[in-house]
## 1
Amino acid sequence: MASVTLAPAISEELAAFLQSGLSIAIGTRDAGLAPEGARVWSVTVEPERVHLEAFVFAPSAGPTLANLAACPQMAIVFDRPHDNHACQVKGTFVGWRAARDDERDELERQFAGFCESVARLGIPGELFAESAQRWPALALRMRITDVFRQNPGPGAGERLT
């Protein structure tokens, strides 16, 4: 009988950080290994902390979805702009769906957290609020396989799970 490797659950502390309102970007690649990136507006870590959903702007998600169909690996970088506390979460794409209307408030809460963080650097959050296209969104579901520390300094690149 083949053994099944289970994804490690991330900590509650890390789950809270990921959902706190950060600068978030997803990276995918096509069948020829050419990279593609997209902006993620919010994430929801599922209660078991093994899966997360990343919310991207639906009208511009075509290249990301095409890449995930060809190569289901994805990497998401999370960064808090005012102090560069950051991590990278890698995993396997397991599906997508249209975001529900009842999820929009959480997306906007996380976006506001991002705007507050950049405001601490002297960049008015309103600059992003006026131009950032966030809705309608798609939820991209990922099974977490690895997490790495990305903040500058000692421990950068260290595996967290």
## 2
Amino acid sequence: MKQYEAVIIALEKMGGQATLADLYRETMKVEGCKWKTKTPFASIRRIVQQRPEIFKVRPGLWALKSYQKKLGLVENADKDKSQVEQNHSYYQGILLTIGNLRGYKTFSPNQDKNRLFVSKPLKDVRTLQEIPKFSYAEFIRKCSTVDVVWFNSHLMPNSLFEVEHSTDFQNSLIKFSDLQDFYSRMIIVADDNRKREFSQKIQSSVFADISKRINFLGYESLVKQYEMDLLKSNQVFLL
């Protein structure tokens, strides 16, 4: 069996689409394929980028063209305005998964719980179905609207993430400002080419108290961290 055929079989087993990290894992399980290389993951990356049967949906997510219509997928969906909701829940799912792998309790807003991360609803990715009662009701309510929250072992908010795909950063920064009295990391996740826009926005005097506490994380960097964490979590991949 050729290597690209193993990748296609793995994609088919996962319903026609998969994150690159999941594809690494499933492709290596396909019997009858010999990789004969010390860097099989690099070979898989090359295959998904070059084979005509496969296309990139968004950073870190690949699909078979034969499943495109069935799954309602768009090539380079990050650039498609009609895909905003799916883009948003995709990055929420990645953030929830990383938090789970790192031992945090994770939460995303209940209004988003049925939105999909690839093919799984966010309610099945987050580990908390209700937000912990860590403070006064008003603070809990505000925190419950943050796109993704990682809670530590004391059920206090460790990290707050807001995914900004196409909207202005204003509302996310206001949320962070309202929650600034908590010892939590605050992170804006967005397309890498919006970093300059973020930097200009955070310089506003309105956000002077929190400007040095908020970090920007681009989609590409986020996906790379996701892939590394997922592979490290499975001893099969410790080379």
